[in-house]
Design brief:
With 258 residues, the protein is α+β, with helices and mostly antiparallel strands. The protein has two domains: 37 residues; 205 residues, no CATH class. Strands 1, 2, 3, 4, 5, 6 and 7 form a seven-stranded antiparallel sheet that branches. The chain is globular, with a radius of gyration of 30 Å. The protein starts with a helix and ends with a strand.
Amino acid sequence: MPGSVVLLSVVPLSVALLSVVLLSVVLLSVVPLSVVLLSVVPLSVVPLKMDNSKNFKSLISDYDGEIDKYFTLIGGHQVFLERYAELLEISNLSLLDELNDFEGTRYPENFDVGTKEKTFSWFFHYHDNTKEEKGHFHLYGSPKVFDDPTAFKKTHIISIELTEQGDFSGFFVPNQWVTDDHIRPAKDIAEILSNFHTFNNDHSVNINIWLTAIIREFNDVIMGLLNQRDIFLGNMSPADKENYLSNKKVEKICERGV
């Protein structure tokens, strides 16, 4: 009968479709959904850190320890900042990578990076071993820089803060209990600020140059913060000032992002 022929031709197709559906259900019951999704959803690509050591060396090939001479040869400190930032970006690196992924909360661990002439120095610091917070550089000038043979302690110049990703983010003036330094008026620091440079050491030449370039580029910002500190502390009585400078609830006197 014609009707039977039509019916018979349809039934096998229905069975076939049902089989496909059942097979899909079985597969989903034994294969994790995440595996199925991975077959259609592309994995996120983690940027690789590139080896651009030749380019980094080329950037400082004209540097012989004379920072003014070097900046003049390449066209100024701004040129260094721009080229250095470009190299870090294309290499998927940050300033933190230049610090060699150190352990603990301080780099270097037991001393400051400075000069053989014992003039300027710096170290990098976290407050927390997790390193999930912002890290920062502490920059110092020795009594020799200020031509002050009577002083025994260094003078803290400024702190330079980085983001959690290692990008430059701003400056702050820490409280004295943090730095245990010999505080000097802003006008005294102004006289030596642009001279800050560390060399003749075994640590990152790039970081040494970068710190000097940042100070020169943001000289006005730094001096603004130091003057702000002097005005703030100058309005206090000697007793209040002493209490404030030793108050461990206050880590920063003033700060500014950039």
